[in-house]
Amino acid sequence: MLEKDIVAKIRNYLKTVPNCFFWKEHGGQYGTAGIPDIIACIDGHFFGFEVKTDKGKPTALQTVTIRKILAAGGTAAVVRSVDEVRALIEGALQR
């Protein structure tokens, strides 16, 4: 499965999550390097999802950005499926 297909599935899932605002971050010269692919705010909690295929690996900058989000109290991770996104959201919101 291609990364864009995983992103589409995650976006479709997030549309069903109550109190969820999200967007797909588009890279390029006007974006900020290292920002996760999907940014979401759910019930006031910040999420960053860096989407990768089964074989994909985050860049060093993406890893640093994930660590910064975690240090600031948000939830961020490399995800490869809707199930991983669902588990992260449920875990974060149960705290």
Descriptive overview:
The structure is a single chain. This protein is globular. The chain has helices spanning 3-14, 60-71, 82-94; strands at 20-24, 38-42, 45-51, 75-79. The protein has a 4-stranded mixed sheet, with helices on both faces. The longest helix is centred in the last third of the chain and has 13 residues, at 82-94. It has a single domain, classed as Trna Endonuclease, Chain: A, domain 1 (3-Layer(aba) Sandwich). A hairpin with a 2-residue loop joins strand 2 (38-42) and strand 3. The mean pLDDT is 95. It has 3 helices and 4 strands. It is of the alpha+beta class and 95 residues long.
Structural descriptors:
95 residues, alpha+beta, Trna Endonuclease, Chain: A, domain 1, four-stranded mixed β-sheet, 23% strand, globular
Condensed summary:
The protein is 39% helix and 23% strand. The chain is of the alpha+beta class and 95 residues long. The mean pLDDT is 95.
Indicate the proportion of strand residues.
15-25%
Q: Total number of helical segments? A: 3
Instruction: Quickly give the CATH architecture.
Output: 3-Layer(aba) Sandwich
Tell me, rounded to a whole number, the average pLDDT: 95
User: Shape from CA axes?
Assistant: globular
Strand order of the largest sheet: 1-2-3-4
Highest-level CATH class: Alpha Beta
Structural class, judged by helices and strands? alpha+beta
Oligomer: single chain
Summed up, the domain count is: 1
Largest sheet descriptor = 4 strands, mixed
SSE topology:
Blueprint: H1 3-14, E1 20-24, E2 38-42, E3 45-51, H2 60-71, E4 75-79, H3 82-94
Parallel strand pairs: 3-4
Antiparallel strand pairs: 1-2, 2-3
